[in-house]
Queue: 2 jobs
Job 1
Amino acid sequence: MLQNLPTNVAEEGAELSSAIDAVVARHGAKRSALLPILQDILAERGEISYLAMQMVADRLGAAPSEVQGVVTFYSFLEVETRGRHVIRLCRTLSCMMAGTRDVGAALEAELGIPFGGTTADGMFTLEWANCIGMCCTPPALLADAEALGEVTPAQVGEVIGALRAANVRE
Ligand code: FES
């Protein structure tokens, strides 16, 4: 499954796979052990990634949706570590045609992380989103709960600055 991935991704996957094997061995590869397995993965890794859910499902002979259902039902089982501020950039058609890629590149450059990543200080996470209902003013993003439209690459610094300033005021 991992053979076509870049080396570092494959290595991460192999390391995660071994860690999950160890947790499953501790609790037994049975569905009744799903919750303690997920709790241990969270305790050891600080997150339960989608890849981890897939691997757990494989080990227990369960459907990935079943594992994901348990993770999302128990709100204390955080899916992926997120920063204090989450910026979600729409990548649906109207926004893509209006320049999402350029805005995305500017966000990555400004924060020094790729989409799906979180800054080392835990302050910002970048995520892709599907249509956020701002199709009449593309490209659009959500800066935490605030929807912004017609965002240009030049405005990205301002958006990040406003979120940083919000921290100072808090
Ligand atoms: S397509 Fe981007 S907000 Fe709808």
Job 2
Amino acid sequence: MAEKLITCVVNNSVKQGSKFWGEHGLSFRIKMGDTCMLFDTGQSETVLLHNYGLLGACPRSLAALVLSHAHYDHTGGLQSVLTQKPDVPLFAHPDIFRPRFSLRDGEYRSIGMALSQNDVSRLANLHLSAEPMEVLPGIWTTGEISVRNEKEGRSKHHFIAVDNGWQADPYRDDMSLVVEDSAGITVICGCCHAGLLNTLAHAARHFKKPIIRILGGTHLLNATPDELQHIIAVLRDEYGSPELYLNHCTGDAAFVALSNAFGEKVHTFPAGASLLIE
Ligand SMILES: [Fe+2]
Ligand SMILES: [Fe+2]
């Protein structure tokens, strides 16, 4: 299988001493030879294009784009990518265009996609499916995480509008990315609202290969100490303690708990950091 270089383009924190800019958001680039793709687009065009430029690349060279879910901190740079790379194949869940809201101080504020489905359909080659889709050779969306026996990565502030009012966001659109190599699979999470353990169980069931690495935002910000200990036990007993490259919405307490449990297998993954998968 071809070598794949995974680089964090946008994240809340940046590699020390680098010229990368940080913001609350997430974007990864995966490069395979001369081909590259993006997973999420950060929160803003400004940060995405600045950081992407530091990699010596521009969106015109993109072969594909995947969106993990609708939230603004993952889709905010979308317009700039689609303007520079019209007709790029764009992969996402069919529910991604549903408006999303955050309830703060009694006010529902929009936190979903800035572009409508019609806008995106005009600009991109749109592939919407709740099933896993192969984006590039050996790189797949997970598809919808439909079985959720474990805790989800929820925020009590997140809502969708329904006929008779408001409903907690079911996060049906939340998907992760799976990168295959000869030893197993790497799961790259956006915000992991479907829940880290639910996402891993889905990936293990569908791809039938060992999960050897987990990257990205794991949404453990609000996890209690007991919940973190449960996650640690499952990672150790079910998945053989995969390498963890954590960022975005993982949370400091979760990072410390996982580091205490797994030592050198736990890494931060700020903007500017890269990982080569052979
Ligand atoms: Fe999110
Ligand atoms: Fe996020």
